[in-house]
Fold:
Amino acid sequence: MDIKAITTQSALDMYMTNTELDHLAAGRSHKEDGKRDFAARQELIKKMADNINQNFLLFNSSLKIEIDEQTHIQVVKVLNDESKQVIRQIPPEAMLQIARYLDKITKVLFEQKA
Structure:
């Protein structure tokens, strides 16, 4: 991927979105506010992913952001549009497997102590 293809405006948009996310994270005080902030944060992440996907069209690739169901870790994947094959994943699948294993062990340890 050619880094030069990301325009200055795209970089500025990403910076502004990150700034908005920081403001949302700093403003959490009550549970209801946290729920609204979470929804707003998810909307900003979706907007940012859509913006990045527009830039990825040049490379016949797309960006997919998911949350792993077992670990609740955000997973970012770069996909080839034609083959739908994963080009790169952050964090890698091996790291997710380690996180799942550690969660499983932690649950077993706490169950044995109780």
User: Anything to note?
Assistant: The longest helix spans residues 31-56. Strands lie at 61-67, 74-80, 86-90. The helical segments are 8-26, 31-56, 93-113.
